[in-house]
Amino acid sequence: MPDTWHREYVREAIENIKGGRAMARGDWEAGDVDEPWLPEFDVRAIVAALPRRPVTVDDFVWDESLRNDERLVEVRDGIRGLIAGEAAAVTRALSDLRGLTCDDGVTGVFGACVVPSLIRLAEEGSGPVRTEALQLAGDLARMDVFGKDSRSGLLRTMGPLARYDSWGYLENWAVEAVRMMIGRDAGPLITLLNDDDPHVRGRAAYVLVTSLPAGQEIADALWERLGVERDPAVQMDLVVGLAQHDNERDQLAQAMTWTRTLWSEPASASGARLGAVVAWLALMSESAPPELRRVLVDMPMPATYELLRQLAWIWWVDVRPGRLVDRWQDLTRGDAPGW
User: What's the confidence (pLDDT) of residue 35?
Assistant: First the structure.
């Protein structure tokens, strides 16, 4: 593996990644105006060069400028902490890794290399750390997580503009590299959709819908799980996830039609119906129409807010009841749409 990631090598690697596979839309592509600001190496090419076998952090071959980076040393320490076994140590390691790779909700260059360990923790760990590991993996796969405070941003993984982290690395590339890593582990994540823990099932859906490539296998797995799911919070996650997955594959009309059918049907399961409301509002720009307002009036608000607090896409929203009420009203009014 070369020490320097020349641009021609990178371009060829990315074309190989995309060749013959349906990739979800990334929205932003580098142009001439971006060239002076782009990093010297592309983390997506590092991921593309990985062996097909299960990988660890040691399989990532970094550019010389990052090989001895203090952050990478700390990331390795954090990953070792994930397998410490002792609950407090694992929790600390997850917190450290979030700060190192998703600081202020912005994905950094080392995000991709922690994804395999996070998914393994979700598979083999115990307790709440499994859910926290999946939440971090899903957050790493979305640009500017804490900035997704509008309808249009809620179900977007990528963005239309170039964005850089505090160290000057291009977040667009970092997020796509994470999504490629998640695609490599789609099988274990699909298995986790049937986990005994409903929190794990919901977060597995949150992570899966960011996968590259965004294939039909994932949609089929989510639909199958939704058909048997009885936990309202997981139903909500599955519906929102399916809508996001359709939108990523440029199937917006299908997502809009399906979610509208779901929220307009009184017999729909409560979690699925609320998920359909959230997804439909996130996919449109107009204020809620009268028929949706009637649905919202009939929803029992205490139970609705309790469900919304569990939605993986907005875990960072201030969960004080009054604040969540304000955010929900903003979203449904449309005059100040957002979370």
Answer: 86
Compute how many other C-beta atoms are within 10 angstroms of the C-beta atom of residue 260. Answer: 19
Q: Is the pTM of this model over 0.85?
A: yes
Query: For residue range 102-123, what is the model confidence (pLDDT) as tens digits?
Result: 999 999 999 999 999 999 999 9
Tell me if 156 sits within 8 A of 143, measured CB to CB.
yes
Contact indicator for 44, 177 with CB cutoff of 8 Å: yes
Alpha-carbon gap, residue 78 to 97, rounded angstroms: 6
Give me the pLDDT at residue 103, please.
92
Q: Could you give the CA distance from residue 215 to residue 207 in angstroms, rounded to a whole number?
A: 14
Which phi and psi (to 5°) does residue 170 adopt? -75, 115
**pLDDT > 90? residue 187:** yes
Q: Which residues are registered as beta bridge partners of 207?
A: none
Pure H helices in 185-320: 186-192, 198-208, 216-228, 232-248, 252-263, 270-283, 290-298, 301-308
Q: What is the largest CA-CA distance in the chain?
A: 62
Report CA Rg, the chain.
20
Task: Indicate left, alpha or beta for 161 from its phi (over 0: left) and psi (-120 to 50: alpha).
Answer: beta
